[in-house]
Amino acid sequence: MVTGAAQPQPESATTAATVSPAEPHRGASATRRGSRVVVVGGGPGGYEAALVARQLGSDVTLVERRGVGGAAVLTDVVPSKTLIATAEWLTLVESADELGIRIAGSATPAGAPTPDVEPAVFDVDLGAVNERVRALAEQQSNDIAGRLEREGIRIIHGTGRLSAPDTVVAEERTPGSGPGREHRLDADVVLVSTGVSPRVLPTAVPDGERILTWTQVYNLTAMPERLVVVGSGVTGAEFAGAFAALGADVVLVSSRDRVLPGNDADAAELIEDVFCRRGMTVMANSRAVSATRHGDEVVVELQDGRSVTGSHCLMAVGGVPNTAGLGLHDAGVELTPSGHVLVDRVSRTTTRGIYAAGDVTGVFPLASVAATQGRVAMWHALGDAVSPLDTSRVPATVFTSPEIATVGIGEAEAAARGARVVTVPLPRNPRAKMLDVREGFIKLIAREGDGTILGGVVVGPRASELIYPITLAVANRRTADQLANSMTIYPSLSGSIAEAARQLHEPLHS
Ligand SMILES: Cc1cc2nc3c(=O)[nH]c(=O)nc-3n(C[C@H](O)[C@H](O)[C@H](O)COP(=O)(O)OP(=O)(O)OC[C@H]3O[C@@H](n4cnc5c(N)ncnc54)[C@H](O)[C@@H]3O)c2cc1C
Ligand SMILES: NC(=O)c1ccc[n+]([C@@H]2O[C@H](COP(=O)([O-])OP(=O)(O)OC[C@H]3O[C@@H](n4cnc5c(N)ncnc54)[C@H](O)[C@@H]3O)[C@@H](O)[C@H]2O)c1
Fold this sequence. Notes:
Organism: Salana multivorans
Bound molecules: flavin-adenine dinucleotide, nicotinamide-adenine-dinucleotide
Domain FAD/NAD(P)-binding: 36-374
Number of domains: 3
Family: Belongs to the class-I pyridine nucleotide-disulfide oxidoreductase family.
Largest sheet: 7 strands, mixed
CATH topology of the largest domain: FAD/NAD(P)-binding domain
Shape: globular
Binding site for NAD(+): 231-238, 318
Cofactor: FAD
């Protein structure tokens, strides 16, 4: 019998005790030791949950059909950010000349005419880059699997489904030899964390060679001559930027009037500008209706009758939740109109004892959120202290060059709430000048009156790191004055965060 902690109440706040997850939890003796927990899907949502459940004394089985670490480690976050690391290196090299670095033998005494030497050009061996990417992902997956096994978590390499609300059937994966052995796993708590798969348009079916999903780009052994990227969301923008930096001729087909439609408008405009300056073609208001292979070419037809031809096409048109065949309907688990699993802020589904975490819930498709949802699910299910998920404080980064990092409310909401917005351009910052940083900004949003920081945007190198002090301020309801009065290093890019905060100061007499 399933013994979940409380009646599910999707969309509502939890009934459990509320403390910050950073505070010590109650002792495991207060929790349901010895519970049988089955996790289906081994991405960050699943494996982080498994670790918490084990820590709380449960008997834990994790069923994963592909590889531990999930899509996050094997096809999405880890490989894309590793590829981007190579692209970033090439972007840095663009500044070499400005910084006084010359090709060996071409430096001249001061004042002498510079000899006519071609700027350094690097060829990227995409086969070698991708080999490194795949090896790193595989290694990370093995590291996580090793950790889980050391903690005493049982891993079944196979496909899981619910045969009843308290039973998971796992069919073991036996490569090349028909159906594998079936395990019937009785569970007190089930966590569904099966992620999403790339959305496939029936008129643009990937062949894995020239029409690709984002999971297939790591099989390329040679640089695409002309890559058409369809979709200008985060995935499309990151790959378009990376491949342009790696030396491919890139066309970005965007169905909207600008790239990154869900992001800060100033940041998106800046990135689109950078893309165009680097030679990328950005086609706005261009919805792709099909992608067809003709020998070594791919023709992408657009809704307005135009077409664009490339050597390769990357479809980055979003994902669909992996719920098919899981037995969710029969188990009474409700889905949202978009097909995601309906959960509340402690990850409960509509069936007692069944929880869900990560992209399959569609709550906020980030690895960090998946992991948090998974942990929260186990804290709740197993009776430990728990805070419901708060998506208003989640930081996110688009790993373009420059990076775009955001946290808290955006400008539209700021306007609606009458909040104050200050933007400080990064190129004015002394450290930025030294580093030849030519674009970027810090934007802070603060509540009128008491100056509480409500949100922020950083566009610049390593914005993913620079956003942290702003995240701390948003998460802990700190004020602009508190941010301004925390000293920064001189010279440092974070000095501009303090500068923006100083500009938000409201004098006592005002
Ligand atoms: C290109 C790309 C780049 C990204 N970059 C970032 C980033 O930089 N930072 C970030 O925070 N997020 C990033 N994301 C989002 C991130 O990948 C997801 O939010 C994260 O993977 C979600 O984790 P998850 O645990 O929900 O699922 P996943 O990581 O998708 O794992 C789900 C697992 O479940 C398995 N599974 C599915 N069905 C079954 C079944 N029936 N039985 C057994 N196993 C099953 C799958 O094989 C998979 O391994 C990126 C996404 C993409 C597409
Ligand atoms: N750095 C990161 O953290 C990172 C990176 C990648 C993805 N993600 C996560 O994954 C989620 C999904 O991102 P995504 O970019 O894969 O999907 P998405 O759904 O956000 O974007 C897909 C884009 O494709 C467009 N599109 C759809 N059909 C089209 C067509 N026929 N022609 C042209 N354009 C079309 C859509 O309008 C949309 O803008 C994001 O919300 C993000 O949370 C995160």
